[in-house]
Amino acid sequence: MVNDTPRIEPRRLPIHLARMSPQLPAMPHDPWADHYESVMALTFGELYEQMTSSTLAEVDRLVPADATILDLGAGAGRMALPLARSGRRVIAVDRSERMLAVLQRSSSALDPEVAGRIEPVRAAISEPGPIGPVDLVLCVFTVVAYCLTENELRSTFRAAFEAMPAGGPFLLDAPQPEIFESMEIESGDLIRTVSMDEVDPGIHEYREHTVLRTPGGPIEYRDSFRLRLWSSDEIERGLRGSGFTTIEDVTDRFPDLGARYLVARGSGVTSSAE
C-alpha cells in the first residue's frame, strides 16, 4: 500500500556563527553530545532535575515571562528549551557545533512558536559577538570552569555585562572543589569513569571513559579536556573588573549542588527583583 500522507520535515533553526574560525578543534563533550543529557541524568538523578528547577525558579524571580535571555554555554539546551516553553526568548551560545545540533533537533520537536524563541549561536562564551540587549544572562552548570585564563574569564563577564545595557541581572554559578573530584559510577544502563587530576595550580585534566546502554545497543566513548577551579575572590574580582557593582549570593536557593550561585548587576540596579 502506498502512503500518500505528505511528509512533514522537522523545523530546523539556523545556527549563527560569531567570530569563530572555520576549522574548529574538538570541543569538550563532542564525543558524547548526542547522549549528554541521558548520561548526566543517569549520573546525578534527581539532583540534575533540581539544578534545572532551581535555576528556572531563580529566573522567574529575576525577570518577567517575556524576557530575553542570553544563555552562555547553552550546550544541548538544558535551560534554553524550558525557558522557551515558559515564554522567554533565548539566545543560546555554545562553541560546540555538535551540542547545538542536539539543541536544534530538540527544538524541531517543539511547537513552531516556541521553537522560534530559540536562537542558537556557535561561538566562544568569551567572544559571542554583538548580542543584545537582553534582560538576563545565564552562565550555569559549571560553565565558568571552562574558562582557563583570567583573560577568558574576564572577557566572558564583560560580554555578559555589555549584553545588558540596564545593568543585569547576571546569574552564574562558581563550582566548588568537590566538583573536581574523580568518580566511578555503575548502574543498570551506565558504566562511567571520570578522573580529575590537577596538572597546574587550579587547572584540572578531565578524562572520561563511559559505556551507555541504549535500545540500539551499547555506546562507548572517551573524552578529555581541561577545567579550572576559580576561587570566590577570583570570580568576584573578575565580575567587578568587568563592570558589575553589586553581587548577591543566592546559594541558599540552590542547596547541595556543589557550587556558589551569584546574581551580579551593574551600577544603579537593585540587587533583588521587585
Rg over C-alpha atoms, rounded to the nearest angstrom: 19 Å
The secondary-structure class comes to alpha/beta
Oligomer: single chain
Strand content: 25-35%
Strand order of the largest sheet: 1-4-3-2-5-6-12-11
CATH superfamily membership of the domain at 26-176 and 230-266: Vaccinia Virus protein VP39
Could you give the count of β-strands? 12
Which stretches are poorly predicted, pLDDT < 50 over at least 5 residues? 1-24, 268-274
**Treating each run of at least 4 consecutive H or I residues as one helix, how many helices?**
7
Please estimate the helix content: 25-40%
Q: Taking all residues together, what is the mean pLDDT?
A: 89
Summarize the structure.
By secondary structure, the protein is α/β, with parallel strands linked by helices. Helix content is 26%, strand content 30%.
Your description of this structure?
With 274 residues, the protein is of the alpha/beta class. The chain has a domain at 26-176 and 230-266: Rossmann fold (3-Layer(aba) Sandwich), CATH 3.40.50. 26% of the residues lie in helices and 30% in strands. It is built from seven helices and twelve strands. It has helices at residues 36-44, 46-62, 80-85, 97-108, 112-115, 150-162, 232-241, and strands at residues 16-17, 68-72, 89-94, 118-122, 136-139, 170-175, 183-186, 190-200, 203-214, 217-228, 244-249, 259-266. The strands form two sheets. An eight-stranded mixed sheet has the order 1-4-3-2-5-6-12-11, sandwiched between helices. It has a four-stranded antiparallel sheet with strand order 7-8-9-10, covered by helices on one side. A hairpin with a 2-residue loop joins strand 8 (190-200) and strand 9. The radius of gyration is 19 Å and the shape is globular. The termini are far apart. The model is unreliable at 1-24 and 268-274 (pLDDT under 50).
